[in-house]
Amino acid sequence: MRFEGKTALVTGGNSGIGFVTAKMLIAEGARVAITGRDRAKLDQAVAELGPNALGLQADLNDEAAIDPVFKQIGEAFGALDIVFANAGISGPTPLGGTTAAAFDAILRTNLTAVFLTVQGALPLMKAGGAIVLNGSVMRELGAPGTAAYSATKAGVTGMAKVFAAELVQRGIRVNTVIPGGTRTPIWTRGAREGATLDGTEQMLAPRVPFARFATPEEVAAAVLFLASGDASGMTAAEIVVDGGTIGAPWGAPLFRQG
Known about the structure:
Blueprint: E1 7-10, H1 16-27, E2 31-36, H2 39-49, E3 53-57, H3 63-77, E4 82-85, H4 100-121, E5 130-134, H5 147-167, E6 173-179, H6 197-204, H7 216-227, E7 238-241
Parallel strand pairs: 1-2, 1-4, 2-3, 4-5, 5-6, 6-7
Helix pairs in contact: 1-7, 3-4, 4-5
């Protein structure tokens, strides 16, 4: 197993891509700490993941929560081999209708908290460690009403390259996974509450060359590759898991003849 004896942190690991990544890491031998804000969801996730999972309730937007999280991980695991900075939120931020607080909330979770998470993890990491950040194709699609979310995901991929440059001498690799539309609960939360995952996928699939969303397992497989020794020659790199959305957009059903 690729992760036998390894330890990992997955932020936002109580649902979606984070949960599936934690599950797959554990299946390959790792011990995994997951974070989440909702205690009930966190407890349910840990119960499903089993004894090699450590659940930590924390709001990583709060700088004061960072040190206690890594103190608990240090006490439980001793060190960290892998960090998947996955936690993030979305929300509409249209021009002319967005408050500074609404805009800043997305920046705080998707960008500042990612920086603070990586910074907080470093004392527990050593040469051979791997950090994976979760980006998004939204960084370059120009979707109306998504200024804050799109800006944060562009920021994540830019920040990953800086991290890679800063950490290369410590032997820690930093890479990014770039999901497109993925079958996770994010599509039915917040401003989309009341929407169904199947209905949303059916609406957006014509814009995706694969004519479907990715599964969380497909994205998690890319994360596991980047976190593993199989990617030992890679840093400051990206893996895009979007069914061709940004690489081959003209292959989408919307543009096909017949």
